């Protein structure tokens, strides 16, 4: 290896991932971080870390950190500066090795319009499209508006008809400008029943290049992937060969070296595939390829950057078994997958089954609005697809996770659905299959979990007792009175009533007997009516997060005396997450119809339009364009037409 110190110009799980491989190769690692990440795990795992006053996009500050720490090479990870050709040129001009392809490759493929033109030149099939929105009728509806410098689902809008074109283009351009500093867009035919298939390529500076098979990344929300797998259940040997040849042909035109991905859209009905883009970096979903091929892609990137040849050919690459990856996000699937913030009060990955956890957080991590809400990825590898999916679902379900709403339970529902297991995984999967968006425990399961929680709380009270610590809770001379704990879950609540018995057991109000076999601050081993449960329990404020094996059930401890709360404004539009009001379309006195957009909130580099759900009149506007708001902020109030009619009748 021609360098000893590597600067990792990224954060979170990908920074940890790069550091892990580099350390295994004997390479010293330097991290950079901003204040929001001062306590993040990747900072402590690096050999040295440099604080950035600005952001991860400040190339000059990143290069200064490399100079100050003696770094000889720089790995950009993905996102941020990873596909910034100007920054790559600056890295090399500073005398550092750039872990990635050439500047020319990044420039050509970073512009989706130029990449499309090169694909046509290389004979790779492309979807009908145009750089001009004037050609929309010729391209045909539905169509997709896409950011020229885009990626990660940002700056993309589906337009069903000519009526929605102007708004779709305007929204995509704003999001593209915010996310990439480039508001250029183009249009492309939208294929509803499609699969997202990508070919992993890997080349060196000596002209050697191979493909590592395909990944399918079709299960998406907002055009962002959430479950990926390798191989694809739809791709046979003939199709795989055709797509691989197209990918390698395009890579040859580019003179590509390092790791890269050629992405295709596969029409599920016809079997035709079309070029989408080339990602000139490591992909989020690269672990599934690593697990089926046995190759460490970060290691290969570092070797190539050091000038080493691959040392193997296409005939040496084989695929073993099946790998499935799920992206774990701090988001609420039941609330249209909107991002969530808070403190990760509970996080303990399941010990079994054995999974790969590429995670950027730990228990106690604060999830804010500064970055993408992805917490990390969880990956399973097994001999068969069904076994890999089941293994991943079980590991996710058995993980203790709480304090922040996540998509974990939704992922489990997807992985266990009949359609997923049958390989019916087109890009419309979520809308078509509609997996459960949250854990839906039965009344019996809720009651059982509430009783487990109540007995754990009883143990907490005993452990914190300063006097008579050995006496059962609630004990009095002459009788042992019932103890009561009311636990809220969702819109309902459960009242748990029990009393201690002289033999150390407990009896609930329906006569069920419970025995605690072991109690600790982390959980409880308890037998209730003959059913024994080992549960992890975390208390976070008034919340009790109970992991009973099928997922975490979150209860709120209810006080014995409830104080009256503030009244809620009716007809109010409330911010569902922290964000910035980037467009306000109404003023006091305006009439709105059901479906009209009233404002647009930007959060985590994505636009979230808010629309009227009924006809009405705007009676109050509490925000201005450009204003930053917190979650729960009342933005504006609409008095519905039905309200006016009711007022007239009673007036």
Key phrases:
single chain; 651 residues; alpha+beta; Rossmann fold; Dna Ligase, domain 1; D-amino Acid Aminotransferase, Chain A, domain 1; 8-stranded antiparallel sheet; 27% helix
Low-confidence stretches: 561-570, 643-651
Q: Which fold name corresponds to the CATH topology of the largest domain?
A: D-amino Acid Aminotransferase, Chain A, domain 1
Query: What is the CATH C-level name of the largest domain?
Result: Alpha Beta
CATH superfamily grouping of the largest domain:
ATP-grasp fold, B domain
Which structural class fits the helix and strand makeup? alpha+beta
DSSP strand (E) fraction? 25-35%
Mean pLDDT: 91
Helical coverage, percent range: 25-40%
Q: Based on DSSP secondary structure assignment, what is the total number of beta strands?
A: 39
- The overall number of domains is 5
Strands of the largest sheet, in order across it?
Answer: 14-13-10-11-12-15-22-20
What is the rounded Rg? 28 Å
Judging from the principal axes of the Cα atoms, what is the shape?
Answer: globular
CATH architecture verdict of the largest domain: 2-Layer Sandwich
Report the span from N to C terminus: 84 Å
Continuous helix count: 17
Largest sheet descriptor? 8 strands, antiparallel
């Amino acid at each position: 290896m021609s360098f000893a110190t590597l600067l990792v110009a990224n954060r979170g799980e990908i920074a940890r991932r790069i550091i892990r491989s580099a350390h295994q190769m004997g390479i010293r690692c330097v991290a950079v971080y901003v204040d929001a990440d001062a306590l993040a795990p990747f900072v402590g795992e690096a050999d040295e870390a440099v604080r950035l006053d600005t952001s991860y996009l400040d190339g000059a500050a990143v290069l200064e950190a490399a100079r100050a720490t003696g770094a000889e090479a720089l790995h950009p990870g993905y996102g941020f500066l990873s596909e910034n050709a100007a920054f790559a040129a600056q890295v090399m001009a500073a005398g550092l090795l750039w872990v990635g392809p050439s500047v020319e490759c990044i420039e050509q493929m970073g512009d989706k319009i130029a990449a499309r033109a090169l694909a046509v030149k290389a004979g790779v099939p492309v979807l009908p499209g145009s750089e001009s929105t004037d050609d929309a009728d010729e391209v045909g509806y539905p169509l997709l508006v896409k950011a020229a410098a885009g990626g990660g689902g940002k700056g993309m809008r589906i337009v069903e008809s000519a009526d929605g074109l102007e708004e779709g283009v305007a929204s995509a351009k704003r999001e593209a400008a915010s996310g990439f500093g480039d508001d250029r867009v183009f249009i492309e035919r939208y294929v509803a029943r499609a699969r997202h298939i990508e070919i992993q390529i890997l080349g060196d500076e000596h002209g050697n290049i191979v493909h590592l098979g395909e990944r399918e990344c079709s299960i998406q929300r907002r055009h962002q992937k959430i479950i990926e797998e390798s191989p694809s259940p739809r791709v046979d040997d003939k199709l795989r060969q055709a797509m691989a040849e197209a990918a390698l042909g395009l890579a040859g035109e580019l003179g590509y070296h390092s790791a890269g991905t050629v992405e295709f859209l596969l029409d599920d009905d016809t079997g035709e595939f079309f070029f989408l883009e080339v990602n000139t970096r490591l992909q989020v979903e690269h672990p599934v390829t690593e697990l089926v091929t046995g190759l460490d892609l970060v290691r290969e990137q570092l070797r190539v950057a050091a000038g080493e040849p691959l040392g193997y050919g296409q005939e040496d690459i084989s695929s073993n078994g099946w790998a499935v990856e799920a992206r774990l996000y701090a988001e609420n699937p039941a609330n249209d997958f909107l991002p969530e913030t808070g403190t990760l009060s509970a996080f303990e990955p399941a010990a079994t089954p054995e999974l790969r956890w590429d995670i950027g957080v730990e228990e106690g991590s604060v999830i804010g609005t500064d970055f993408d809400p992805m917490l990390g990825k969880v990956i399973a590898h097994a001999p068969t697809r069904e076994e890999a999916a089941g293994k991943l679902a079980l590991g996710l379900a058995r993980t203790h996770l709480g304090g922040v709403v996540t998509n974990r339970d939704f992922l489990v529902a997807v992985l266990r659905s009949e359609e997923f297991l049958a390989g019916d995984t087109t890009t419309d999967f979520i809308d078509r299959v509609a997996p459960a968006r949250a854990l839906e425990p039965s009344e019996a399961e809720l009651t059982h979990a509430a009783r487990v929680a109540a007995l754990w709380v009883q143990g907490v009270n005993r452990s914190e007792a300063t006097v008579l610590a050995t006496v059962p809770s609630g004990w009095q001379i002459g009788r042992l009175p019932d103890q009561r704990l009311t636990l809220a879950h969702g819109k309902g609540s459960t009242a748990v009533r029990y009393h201690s018995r002289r033999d150390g057991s407990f009896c609930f109000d329906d006569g069920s007997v419970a025995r605690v076999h072991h109690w600790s601050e982390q959980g409880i081993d308890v037998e209730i009516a003959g059913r024994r449960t080992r549960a992890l329990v975390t208390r976070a404020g008034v919340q009790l997060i109970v992991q009973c094996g099928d997922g975490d059930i979150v209860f709120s401890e209810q006080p014995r005396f409830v104080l009256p709360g503030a009244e809620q404004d009716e007809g109010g539009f409330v911010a569902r997450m922290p964000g910035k009001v980037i467009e306000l379309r109404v003023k006091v006195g305006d009439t709105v119809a059901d479906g009209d957009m009233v404002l647009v909130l930007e959060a985590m580099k994505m636009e979230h339009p808010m629309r009227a759900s009924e006809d009405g009149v705007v009676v109050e506007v509490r925000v201005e364009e450009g204003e930053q708001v917190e979650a729960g902020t009342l933005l504006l109030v609409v008095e519905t037409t039905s309200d006016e009619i009711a007022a007239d009748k009673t007036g």
